[in-house]
């Protein structure tokens, strides 16, 4: 069997085109485009690239963006003050604090200071709670993108066995919550899980988010399963590998995402979709800024 490739690039393009239509409609209605403020602290080169990619995609979709670049030694109080200003700024619909923050800063406190209504990353504790309660809120971008890819594969999670490798707050836990909300039977695995290959073999939907290059091999996969590879691992030779050994896995899986070109492009697309969602949400409830 040869798996059908889930084309994340193409699906992300379609999401961004929809965002552009929604942004134009909102701009006409509100008299301004949806706005995304990005806060970056320090000189992490990867963060700089991520932020500039996000801003470029925003611009292409008709979403206004602002970058607030603060020095590495910014005190916590100053960062909180900036977030508060952005919380109150009427033209800002979404606020994203680029992670990781320098070690001297308290990441949890900063994320909790973002207004939940503008929390386009979905990391505020209130939105985390909403996600597990199954009520509407802001959903983290990578997990939201993964669900979009599963949907495009034509697979309904309802009644299926889903296995998620990884329990991080950014990927593993929220994608497990979304699969559960979509009525899958969900198992979350981590570094202490015993007999990981046997657990994976039970999966109709397997999400690999461990950050371990080519951890998942073909013999771990149930024939016909949907395999979503979230991993982005830089190898010593400079190339990027996913968490799934694509060559062996694609001979067994029914559907599979490539790396690159799978989950990666979806993350930014869903960030823009969340910004439009936040703008709509705020426009319908003008009292709560
Ligand atoms: P993370 O915070 O490092 O979490 C990794 C998780 O995997 C942890 O829960 C860890 O278990 C588990 N794990 C590690 N090795 C394992 C093993 N051998 N067997 C079973 N479980 C194992 O990583 P993350 O932020 O969730 O990201 C995961 C991967 O996705 C990374 O490669 C990252 O670069 C990528 N990523 C991609 C995107 C995108 O847009 N494409 C976005 C975010 C992340 P413990 O909890 O027990 O330590």
Q: Describe it for me?
A:
There is one protein chain. By secondary structure, this protein is α/β, with parallel strands linked by helices. It folds into two domains: 31-116, Rossmann fold, CATH 3.40.50.10860; 141-264, NAD(P)-binding Rossmann-like Domain (Rossmann fold). 42% of the residues lie in helices and 15% in strands. It has ten helices and eleven strands. The strands form three sheets. It has a six-stranded parallel sheet with strand order 1-11-8-7-5-6. It has a three-stranded parallel sheet with strand order 3-2-4, with helices on both faces. Strands 9-10 form a two-stranded antiparallel sheet. A hairpin with a 5-residue loop joins β9 (233-234) and β10. The longest helix has 23 residues, at 8-30. It starts with a strand and ends in a 5-residue tail after the last helix. The mean pLDDT is 96. NADP nicotinamide-adenine-dinucleotide phosphate (NAP) is lined by residues 142, 165-168, 170-172, 189-193, 196, 209-212, 215, 230-233, 263-264, 267.
Portion in strands: 15-25%
Bound molecules: NADP nicotinamide-adenine-dinucleotide phosphate
- What is the makeup of the main sheet? 6 strands, parallel
CATH class designation of the largest domain: Alpha Beta
Unreliable stretches covering 5 or more consecutive residues: none
Q: Helical percent range? A: 40-55%
Overall shape: it is: globular
Strand and helix order: EHEHEHEHHHEHEHEEEEHEH
- What is the number of strand segments? 11
Distance between the termini: 53 Å
Number of helices: 10
Averaged pLDDT: 96
| Radius of gyration over all CA atoms, rounded | 19 Å
CATH topology (level 3) name of the largest domain: Rossmann fold
Tally of discrete structural domains:
2
Classified in CATH, the superfamily of the largest domain is: NAD(P)-binding Rossmann-like Domain
| CATH architectural grouping of the largest domain | 3-Layer(aba) Sandwich
List the strand order in the largest sheet. 1-11-8-7-5-6
Structural class per helix/strand content? alpha/beta
